[in-house]
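pasting GGDEF domain-containing protein for the record, 287 residues
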Amino acid sequence: WAKAEGRDRWAVYDPERSARDLARSELAAGLPAALDRGEFVLHYQPIVSLLDGRMLAVEALVRWQHPHLGLVGPDRFIGLAEETGLIVRLGEWVLRQACRDAQRWHTEFPDAGLVVSVNLAARQADRPAIVDTVADALASSGLPAELLQLELTESAVMGSAGEPLRTLHRLAALGVRLAVDDFGTGYSNLAYLRRLPITCLKLAGPFVEGIRGTAPADADHRDERIVDALVRLAHALELWVTAEAVETEAQAERLRALRCDTAQGRLFGPPGPAETVVARLRGDGPR
Ligand code: C2E
Ligand code: MG
Ligand code: MG
Ligand code: MG
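structre below
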């Protein structure tokens, strides 16, 4: 009751404050306890070869199993966790859990060579201590370093000079893969790109969305030409390319024609609990 009353008062005294903002601050306040209570779960989405459809990697995507709201997506709380600084602790949990899961898969399906890809927030990647955290997550799980990929955003890697750049090089020296996430949506410094120890570019969903084959809205094929250029850029730098948010066979067909290597999206499977990865590894069979 007190809570409901408080909510009404907010509405009376501060009409500008939307119900959404209130929900936001309530969510933010609940995050630390949620982490302590173990309410976060990881779902995994396949990243497949566009040549033969084989699952090469899975991306770990965090969800909050909220006691009242149900499964809450990261878009609703990752930003909050970044603002409050909790992302460092939450991100470390994600990293360790993903490494443990991946090591189990690696033990059961050693020939699959399945890579687990983990998102790092700028606030995590910025801290030199991230190198020890990653090294420890690998050592304590037993996961080989080459089966871990870390996804960083353009802003996290391109702005980095001095210490942050050294941190990226130290991460790469561990043997893990580094990918630039949502490539093309931030500010990319191309001169910088060639100096970064990265192995993969992930093409942002909006470009892929624009690839609609013969749809009249895409008559000038602008997004397609951007994707074409970005794939060429990546290959010139000897980087892998993963297209994100691939939803239709027509998009996959175009991406194949543009020589894009790998893809992720609803067409190839939505994010799902760890069991769905095991089921798929079984189905993929021996290589
Ligand atoms: P992202 O890293 O770019 O992850 C891809 C997002 O695209 C995921 O949303 C995924 O569910 C969604 N997606 C998958 N297939 C499709 C598709 O066919 N079409 C479209 N339109 N979208 C698709 P999700 O799981 O809601 O995650 C959103 C963002 O939250 C992620 O974007 C990432 O930036 C962030 N995030 C998720 N987990 C973590 C984490 O553990 N740590 C950090 N720092 N950020 C995370
Ligand atoms: Mg979402
Ligand atoms: Mg990502
Ligand atoms: Mg992305």
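Residues 51 and 70 are 37 Å apart (CA to CA).
Residues 1-7 have pLDDT under 50 and may be disordered.
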